[in-house]
UniProtKB/TrEMBL annotation:
InterPro entries in alphabetical order: ATPase_NBD, ROK, WH-like_DNA-bd_sf, WH_DNA-bd_sf
Gene3D superfamilies (alphabetical): 3.30.420.40, Winged helix-like DNA-binding domain superfamily/Winged helix DNA-binding domain
Stretch list, region Disordered: 1-29
Compositionally biased residues, Low complexity: 1-20
Family matches, as Pfam families: ROK (PF00480)
Species name: Microbispora cellulosiformans
Name listed for the protein in its UniProt record: ROK family transcriptional regulator
Family: Belongs to the ROK (NagC/XylR) family.
Length: 422
């Protein structure tokens, strides 16, 4: 199921009011403006939490009577509620606070990682209400039916435990591979052994609900942009480490998707072409081959011990205790990571680079070496303002991104989407 294009961190700004002269030929009708304003207001409340009517009027450029009419419609639909502010001691009539109905309106979000399956019920406003997890012991040759079966059962459990009258507003899934946006087909997921697997359609059949699927790093970038370390930055790069390395790039507040939706495969940027490590894609010296899980664990001399996030964290912890081999591994990884980051900064001039997934654990011990490469290899003008940060959403970044994908239809047309769900 194709999802509407994601909007910026605070929704698209609405027109300056719903009153005015007749719509000029080729312009939007009053009904279209109203629908747009409803979506924009709901998105403000969804992303920013409880907010007063007066603040909404200022942010959206609408008069108070228009805001009152819009909130009345959303309240009647059960999407928001209005209440008096906690502090009512100020002079004058207090402006009512608009809150999302987090307990009543929710989505199902799934995150398919190389060695873990995660499912959650996420309420309007981005609140994780309930979750399930299953560890996958075997990485390669994952069976599609098995994965879908686990996720579908998680989804049914999560729905059974909702209150009567609750509404599921959508289903979103993040997958660790290249996804065809139109139908959620996994075109290429090397670490699970999937090629052209109909994941989206199969999960939709298992749940009995339409499902939108996105690449995990793309969705992580959107989540950090809207709710995490990237709030306030319209141009950023998100690097997500799992077994390999993926990425998402936000340009002008929108995800850079590429011609077919397969853009931002940052992990396959070649940084060491001559004597680089072999990559799952068939090339050598890709960023993910030089800085991914296997590269770190091998460099620390711990091959055959722990793998996955536990293996990465074991190396990081050992380096913190003074283990020289582990510390040298972080330095080596930091150097290669810095080369990749330097290339990305020179190419895209982001205001922010975010390290997520496994790289969130690795970056603090490698930061000095990443910064050295940035200082040495990035154009002065491009590095003047760029900031380097770890993910604020932690391991839930991709899961939250999947939830936002699921909410996108509701944000685009709240009343129409809700009517379709009932």
């Amino acid at each position: 199921m194709t999802a509407p294009s994601p909007q910026g961190p605070h929704g698209s700004p609405g027109p300056h009011g719903s009153q005015g002269p007749p719509t000029p030929r080729g312009g939007r009708t009053q009904e279209e403006i109203r629908r747009s304003n409803l979506g924009a207001l709901l998105r403000h409340v969804h992303l920013n939490g409880p907010v007063s009517r007066s603040a909404l009027a200022g942010r959206m450029g609408l008069n108070r009577s228009t805001i009152m009419a819009l909130t009345a419609e959303l309240t009647a639909a059960g999407l928001v509620r209005e209440e008096l502010p906690a502090d009512t001691r100020r002079a004058g009539r207090p402006s009512l606070v608009v809150r999302p109905e987090s307990g009543r309106v929710y989505v199902l979000a799934f995150d398919v990682r190389v060695d873990r399956l995660v499912a959650a019920r996420v309420g309007l406003g981005g609140v994780i209400l309930d979750r399930r997890e299953a560890v996958r012991r075997r990485r390669a040759d994952a069976d599609l039916d098995d994965v879908v079966g686990v996720l579908a059962e998680f989804g049914r459990e999560l729905r059974r435990e909702t209150d009567p009258g609750s509404v599921c507003a959508g289903v979103g899934a993040a997958y660790c591979g290249m996804i065809r946006p139109a139908d959620g087909t996994v075109r290429y997921g090397p670490y699970m052994g999937w090629v052209d697997q109909a994941f989206g359609d199969e999960l939709a059949a298992g749940l009995g609900l339409p499902v939108s699927v996105g690449n995990e790093a793309h969705l992580g970038a959107l989540a950090e942009h809207e709710r995490g370390a990237g709030v306030g930055f319209d141009n950023l790069v998100y690097l997500h480490g799992d077994v390999g390395v993926g990425g998402g790039i936000i340009v002008g507040g929108r995800l850079l998707g590429g011609d077919g939706g397969y853009g931002c495969e940052l992990g396959h940027m070649v940084i060491n072409p001559y004597d680089g490590r072999p990559c799952m894609c068939g090339s050598r010296g890709c960023l993910e081959a030089e800085v991914g899980e296997h590269a770190l664990i091998d460099a620390a001399g711990r091959s055959g011990e722990l793998t996955g996030r536990e293996g990465v964290r074991a190396v990081v912890a050992a380096a913190g205790r003074g283990d020289e081999a582990a510390a040298e591994a972080l330095r080596k990884i930091g150097d290669w990571l810095g080369i990749g980051v330097a290339n990305l900064i020179n190419l895209f001039n982001p205001g922010l680079v975010i390290f997520g997934g496994m790289l969130r654990d690795v970056y603090p011990g490698s930061a000095e070496h990443v910064r050295r490469r940035v200082e040495a290899n990035v154009l002065l003008i491009s590095r003047e303002r760029v900031r380097l940060r770890v993910s604020a959403l932690g391991d839930d970044a991709t899961l939250i991104g999947a939830a936002e994908l699921a909410f996108s239809s509701l944000m685009a047309g709240p009343l129409e989407a809700l009517a379709h769900m009932r």
